[in-house]
Amino acid sequence: MARFIVTEATGAPGEAGELSIVDALRPALSGRDTVVFWRYPLNTRQGQLREPDLLLLDPEWGVVVIEVKNIPLSQIESIQGYAWRLSIPYFGRSIIEPYDQAKQQARVLIERMRDHAALSSVPIRALVALPRVTRDAWDAAGQSFLFNDTPLLLGDELTAARFERAIERTPCVRSGSALDDETFAALLSAFGTGGSLPAPVVVPPPAPAPMAGLRKIDMLARAAEQRREFDLQQEKIAKTIPPGVQRIRGIAGSGKTVLLAQKAANMHLRHPEWDIALVFFCRALYEQMQMQVDHWLRAHSNGQVRYVDARHRIRILHAWGSRDQPGFYRTVAEHLGLTPMNVTDVKAANGGRNTSPTGGVVISARELLTEVDRQGLDMEIFDAVLIDEGQDLVDDDPALQYEDRQSFYWMAYRSLRPVQGEEPLLGEPNGKQTARRLIWAYDEAQSLDSLTIPTGRALFGEKFSQIFTGGVSYRGGIAKSEVMRVCYRTPGPILVAAHALGMGLLRQDGLIGGLAKNTWSSIGYTVEGDMRTRGPITITRPPEHSPNLIARLDPSPLIDFHTHTTRHEEVAALARNVRHALEVEGLSLDRQLVICLGRYADRTIEAAFAALRREGMDVYVAGNLHGNVPPTQNWREKNPNGFRMPGHLTVTNVTRAKGNEADMVHIIGLDEVAAQEGSVTMRNQLFVALSRSRGWIHLSGTGVPMSFQEEVAAVLRSGESITFTMSRAKRNLTDQDDEPDAATA
Questions:
Q1: Distance (Å, rounded) from C-alpha 441 to C-alpha 443?
Q2: What is the C-alpha to C-alpha distance for residues 337 and 12, in angstroms, rounded to an integer?
Q3: Residue 534 gets which letter from DSSP?
Q4: Span between the terminal Cα atoms of the chain, in Å
Q5: 517 sits in which H/E element
Q6: Which is more confident, 697 or 680?
Q7: What is d(CA 144, CA 128) in angstroms, rounded to the nearest whole number?
Q8: Which of 129, 417, 507, 568 is the most buried (most CB within 10 A)?
Q9: Any idea what DSSP says for residue 694?
Q10: What is the DSSP annotation of 334-377?
Q11: 584-642 per-position pLDDT tens digit
């Protein structure tokens, strides 16, 4: 079945004809494995943006470029060769050369594919489409036109058979032959997100001694050679620009951060005049965000645009900000001429009580909105705001909301300029009705401070809960809501364990978190059983939704679980495990990560640091300025953005680990979760820690109660399929906006 990707629909002149062809091709290509892009962004090596009206990738035809001219036959005065003289100018031009346009785009495609040796024999065609002209009318006019030089697709040739004939009679700009499965997969990868991802560099060091099987570093090297398959949903998220709000829910490890960075880069390249904010919660993501945006700007501009060139338009901002590093809240406040709140101000606004980092951001947003409305200030400074880690920017306390809306999101929404020509989705202050381009991504299982899920209803109130109902989409089919089901980071068995332990699926006293059947399916599981009867339910993670190869390459369990008598004993075992991974399995220290569980993990971090340093290993405590320094409270010795240091093993708490990952993750302090095993927040900590792994887990605790040990062991025995009994969950994780069976969870 053909797949269609509409990158941006603005209602501009000329779109109607192009979209009419897209709509006609949906049934015409339904029996083919064709991928159709509308306005795929092509950048030449000279930095020029070219956008084929339609770009088709097909295993039989290769690459087809279609240039659409939505003009009637009566407007064409004469044709000679490639030049068409018009009686009425078309976008200000009286002479057009549509086939030459299409061929120039085809040449850019040839240039792009030069970097892919496997694509050297892919045929490329170019033709011109006239949706308002029929074949009979064109043939009747042929006596006065010298039109034979232009391959044409006419309005009545959009059925399956006639379209196929039109393609086959079009001469090739570059000749070639039909593609085999491998070549077609390579073609899709070359034009897709997967083919442009930074290639992981895995150079296995020599083995110190002969081994019977593969070392872990050797498995990683093999996995790095795996080509990322074309993911239609990822392409839609990364390459489309919605004309209003868009929500992206995703399973952990699905690549939400990468896609938002790519989306911001694509927005800038297409609209370099836009002011764009890319917002996130955890400061440890600053470097990663900047690297991602820089990569996608370079990748999609043929190296002509870098982040340093675009940073005056793409603002990468921590949610709150500080005096030495601007954040989103601080940027908005200073733009309005308001003094940004600091920690002392927030405490005073909270009745003298301390608050969580999320609470601090939300209180600041609430106070800013109050002052804006009191003074009647204009907040509109951005054209698009993209929010990552959206689950960390909501608060459960109704007192921190602003007019029944989540304060941070309402601040972000109102900081946006209206999208001209679009229908409103949300009510506006002062009675205005506009649409605004607010895009947020979240994983509901990763919130460590709030139990509120950032659905449309939760963010903007009951009145606007219909925003995402019924799979509503924008013009051209751009979705208002996406749910990502493929996890590229974490192997299937680890992801299943993360969900099972995080939600308490095998917990003796009933579920911690519950999902409706549709929601389990939407995040990539198959479900057996009837949830309404509260009978046994079996969820299974199919390999296609967890394509990480480590689970197929390593026959041994990917999670190693041990309990210890004392913390000293536990961190000594940690040091042995790290050294074994380093010296025997070939995993350098910076490929490993230590996560310490608990609400107050500082003492565990100190113990882990001391044990690892006693063994002579280089250790970096996340948030420090220097390596091999224990956790410090001296602000002069801190780097709030720091998470990694080359050649060092990072030791961190769960909050800083969010958004980061490693090949091997050592999780210590499981007893902290076991002591509060009924807490949603503590279970979420365990979920976040487990889902940081790209390959393997060492999980341990001290004095873990037998009941919790048995739960963990039962989960680990289940592999990629787990059976549990339904019960009323403490927290319903189902998205109430778009799940018809939400009440059954």
A1: 7
A2: 36
A3: T
A4: 33
A5: helix 517-522
A6: 697
A7: 19
A8: 129
A9: E
A10: HHTTPPPP-HHHHHHHTTT----HHHHHHHHHHHHHHHHHHHT-
A11: 999 999 999 999 999 899 999 999 999 999 999 999 999 999 999 999 888 889 998 89
Helices 286-300 and 256-270: angle between axes, nearest 10 degrees: 50
Asked which of 255-269, 363-377, 448-462 is least confident by mean pLDDT, the reply is 448-462
* Integer Cα distance of 244 and 423 in angstroms: 9
Percent of the chain residues topping a pLDDT of 90: 63
Determine contact, residues 273/312, Cβ cutoff 8 Å: no
In sequence order, what are the residues at sequence separation of 6 or more whose Cβ sits closer than 8 angstroms to the Cβ of residue 487?
A: 251, 252, 253, 254, 495, 524, 545, 546, 548
Cα distances (angstroms) measured from residue 130 to each of 50, 73, 187, 566, 695: 20, 9, 28, 77, 53
Contacts made by residues 573-581, CB under 8 angstroms, sequence distance 24+: 573/700, 574/608, 574/611, 574/612, 574/666, 574/668, 574/698, 574/700, 575/611, 575/612, 575/614, 575/615, 575/617, 577/666, 577/698, 578/612, 578/615, 578/617, 578/649, 578/666, 579/615, 579/617, 581/216, 581/664
CA-CA distances (angstroms) from residue 189 to 9, 234, 253, 550?
24, 12, 20, 21
- Give me the residues paired with residue 575 across strands: none
Largest Cα span, the chain:
94
Q: How far apart are CA 246 and CA 224, in angstroms?
A: 32
What three-state secondary structure class fits 141? helix
d(CA 78, CA 531): 68
Q: Is the dihedral of CA 435, 437, 443, 447 positive or negative?
A: negative
Helices and strands (DSSP H and E) totals, the chain: 25, 31
Of 450, 473, 455, nearest to 465 by C-alpha is: 455
Contact 541, 720 (CB under 8 A): yes
| Tally of CA atoms within 13 A in the half-sphere of 127 that contains its CB | 23
What CA–CA distance (Å, rounded) separates 449 from 392?
7
3-state secondary structure at position 28: helix
Look at the block and give the residue holding tokens 């220097």: 626
**Single pTM value for the model:** 0.91
Sequence-ordered list of residues with C-beta below 8 angstroms from that of 220, at least 6 positions apart, any chain: 200, 202, 204, 550, 587, 591, 663, 694, 695
715 SS3 class:
helix
- The residue whose two tokens read 């945006």 is 293
